[in-house]
Every structure is written in structure tokens, then in C-alpha cells.
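Let us practice reading a record.
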Amino acid sequence: MIDRKMRKNEKEGVMQRENERIIYHLMHFDEKDKEWSERPYLLLEDMAIVFDILDLDDRSIQRIDHKKANKEQWSDQFLWESAKKNTKQFLPAKFEPVYKDFRGHTEDRPVFMVSNKIQRYGAAVICYEDFLDDISRKYNKSLYLLPTSIHEMLLLFDDGEDQEEDLLHILEKSDQQLSKEEFLSENIYYYDKYMGELISLF
């Protein structure tokens, strides 16, 4: 009787930890891929927000599919609300200049990397509440975002110069070095400081 009660408590403890460690990350969305029939997701332009359980090492993830969500009775709304809170808490955003010899980087036009503290699945920080808005307001600039992988994005300020073709070339070159699992998007995104919206340019 005691052993049975202890096992029940252990199981409930594991489930509680899983509830509290639901996070999200971004993936490339291809509607032809059968994966999208197997797991809950939300669309963000041509990217998908997918849900995972962050392991206790704060680095590894376990995919949440429909089977897992149904077993635990996790609705799409529950997954999204939980992940919004947990992802920002466990994987805080990182925003820093990239190295000086990066193409497109000048003293007058710096290039920044946005990711999370572990630089894994870090492109999702653009979904953090107020993250892009805070950067845009601080520098009083609209933003270009280059999704160089699922792990990070490059960020440049819109200085009023026509640079979209140059940025697209940088992104294409970066995409050539990625595995299928790390590829996120071939599009450039633009955060408009006036409208507070993220849109795809291509």
C-alpha cells in the first residue's frame, strides 16, 4: 500500500515537472511534410511554432506530438500559454553584436545576433512578448531579421537604405551550410516600429 502510494506520488511529480517545462521553438514549415499531421503547431508566416518538453539539463528537448498531448490532456491553448511563460523563463533571450568582419557589418550599421542563453532553438526569441518591440523602441529603428537557422537570427536596423537584396544574399549563403533539421526559412522578416508587426518580405 505504501509502495503503491509512493509510486503514484513519483508519477505525479514527473507529470508536474513536464507541465512546467513545456517550451516552444521555431521550425521551417513545409505543408507537404507529414510531420505536421503528427504534432500541434501554430503558424508564423512560413515558420511553425512547435512545442517540446525541456529536459532537466536545460538543453535537450522532447517533442510533443498529438499522442503525448492527448494523453496528458494538453489543449493547443494550454500548450501555447504554458510555453509562452516557460520558454522565456528557462531560455532567456540573448542580443549581442556579431563579429566585425561579418559581411554587412560596419561601425554605422552594426549586425546583431538574437538567440537564447544556450544558443539552441534560439530563433524563437522573436516570439517573446515585447522582445522585438523593446529593441525597436530603444534604438528607434525598424528591424530586419535574417533566420540563419533554428538556433539564431541576425538582426539589422533599417537605416532607410535599400539593402534587402544584399541581406537575401547573406541569408542564401548561410542556408547552404545548414542541415535540413537546422534550416528555418529562406525569407527575410521585417519588424515595423510603427505598426509593431513582423512580416515576411519574400
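A brief commentary: The first strand starts at residue 22 and ends at 28.
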